[in-house]
Task: structure prediction
Amino acid sequence: MLQIAFVSTVLLGLVAAVPVAEASPRVRPTVIEDIRVKPVDSGTNPDAFAYRIHAKLLLGANACEARGVHVKLVTREANGLLEVVPIKTAPREGSRACAQTFRPLYREVDLVARGLSSHAADVVVRNIDHLGTRTSLSDLIPSRRTLTMTGTLSRMQALGGETTGYSLELASGEIVEIDLLTGGLDSRFKNLEGTRVTVKGRFKNIQGTEIPNREVFVVATLNKAP
Result:
């Protein structure tokens, strides 16, 4: 949009306001240095989803490049996906001579990304760490990341029988309930019970009667620890 600014000039002893056209600011992609994602309440529509995104965006390589720059996250739908894109806006001006020093400046921003599962098969975040990257939002949610853990494999019992029957005791003493059945690994338990094993998989939220919500680690691979 064309914006109008006024400057004063002196003409024949009179001060006159003269309109001067100001070009719209430049919009460019920028880079996400750090990002945290958390699912939030999406309302009563079962098809709706919502994620709160907190990200640190690059303003410029140094204070000179960052001067006058604003950054934010925006969403757009493309090819059946909902994309989250970091952008920066900078004023249009003549060439600016900046030193080549690399002392980057960042700004933290927030966004709640909302959509409908029927319209967007996935949510993709662009430009994490580098321009051009594409990362599925589900890979950024801690409870949905693929993790590797090592601990002692044991039996597990719980109130009302609401348990997978298996657990992993970590070196810290924490007991993690694990699911071996989904990955077809329960048959290996007899030979590995009481031994240190390394498992790879993801956490999953399980709803029950006695325990309304609990996190269970669904094991994809199970190997004896070295």
Summary: The helical segments are 63-66, 189-192. Residues 62 and 100 are 8 Å apart (CA to CA). The chain has two domains: 26-140, 146-224.
